[in-house]
Amino acid sequence: MTRILLVDDHPLFLDGVRAALTGAMDLQVVAEAHDGGSGVTLARDHRPDVVLMDLNLPDLSGVEATAQILAAAPDTRVLMMTMSADDDAVVAAMRAGARGYVVKGAGRNDLLHAIRTVAAGGAVFSPTVADRLGRFFTGMAVGSSREAFPQLTQREREVLDLMARGLENRRIARELYLSDKTVRNHVSNVLTKLGAEDRSEAIARARAAGLGGG
């Protein structure tokens, strides 16, 4: 039995998803949340096999909620729900650890197939998204940032790279689909881990290591 957590702020859409899952004997909805923060809490409490996560939520974004869920429950698989597969936030969600996405309005068979594929350890995304992810992770593998700053998390490296490109916190938040507060926390962590006195010193060290040139 695959245990599922639904996270979406639209009750009517949740009703539709719940109805689509009715009759699937191998799938069970164990909890529902209407915002990202509640989704993170319920994921920690219930440890579902799959979280069906709306990309756009009123408090935490789907990207932020995904990152927090996977940090607390790494065996959980997250499947995003989005209005458009072309949304850059889809790729951001994959970077955060989501296993794929399903477009809202997809048929019942497509939805069930996506859930079962992700639950089995597979991934569900288009060739275009796969290509963009491939370029992103290839760049990470061959770049110097990972070797230069091993004390940073992947997200902190992303923030540092954008800092090195000259972006301010609010723009970084938009680029990574994070809240301003989350970005401020990441910047603070970066400065602490690098032992930098201020933002300028961190940027200088990042550029010397090859970040900020993309």
TrEMBL record:
Residues 145-210 form the HTH luxR-type domain. One of its GO terms (molecular function) is DNA binding. The keyword Magnesium does not apply. GO terms for biological process: phosphorelay signal transduction system; regulation of DNA-templated transcription. Keywords: DNA-binding, Phosphoprotein, Transcription, Transcription regulation. Pfam families: GerE, Response_reg. SUPFAM superfamilies: C-terminal effector domain of the bipartite response regulators (SSF46894), CheY-like (SSF52172). The modification 4-aspartylphosphate is found at D54. PANTHER family: TRANSCRIPTIONAL REGULATORY PROTEIN NARL-RELATED (PTHR43214:SF24), TWO-COMPONENT RESPONSE REGULATOR (PTHR43214). This is DNA-binding response regulator. The lineage of its organism: Bacteria, Bacillati, Actinomycetota, Actinomycetes, Propionibacteriales.
